[in-house]
Write a structure and sequence with these properties.
single chain; 155 residues; alpha/beta; four-stranded mixed beta sheet; 9 strands; 23% helix; 35% strand; rod-shaped
């Protein structure tokens, strides 16, 4: 491990520095993957040994969830360990409960701590089709559907 290597170098009165390299192999995390001088080789007194240590690559690629149902989109985001926030937008020309926007473009690599916002259509036309012609009833339905409702779900 890196800690073991630094103890050995300290005992030998050698200077060292750490260089991190991302890896997807969990067995390489915290381990010296490479060193600038071979073990047992001679070096001068002021030499600095570079220890290359593996750190876990915590990046994920953002999938395209536009035009998917809310259920499909959240299932895919969860499967990719991507945290997300849901916003709703009133619309008359999009299918209800369909993702119409995403805040981070598909294909972009992000850290798995970033949060993507998906905007979901709330089709006010389809919601009002089931109401009576009574204006008071339509006003009630319009009051119940908020255009800026926000739900936050983090993995």
């Amino acid at each position: 491990s890196y800690e073991e290597a630094t103890v050995i170098l300290d005992t030998a009165n050698l200077s060292y520095e750490m260089k991190e390299v991302e890896t997807t192999n969990e067995d390489e995390v915290g381990i010296v993957i490479k060193q600038s001088k071979k073990g047992g080789s001679k070096t001068h007194e002021n030499a600095i040994i570079t220890l290359t240590v593996g750190v876990l690559d915590n990046h994920v690629t953002v999938p395209n969830v536009i035009d998917m149902s809310l259920e499909e989109a959240t299932s895919i985001l969860n499967a990719n360990n991507i945290s997300y926030r849901i916003e709703y937008e009133e619309t008359t020309n999009e299918e209800d409960n369909t993702v119409i926007k995403q805040s981070i473009r598909a294909g972009k690599k992000i850290e798995n701590t970033e949060i993507i916002t998906i905007t979901v259509a709330r089709n006010i036309k389809s919601n009002n089709d089931n109401t009576t012609d009574n204006n008071e009833q339509q006003e009630e339905n319009n009051d119940e559907s908020s255009s800026n409702e926000e739900v936050t779900i983090e993995n």
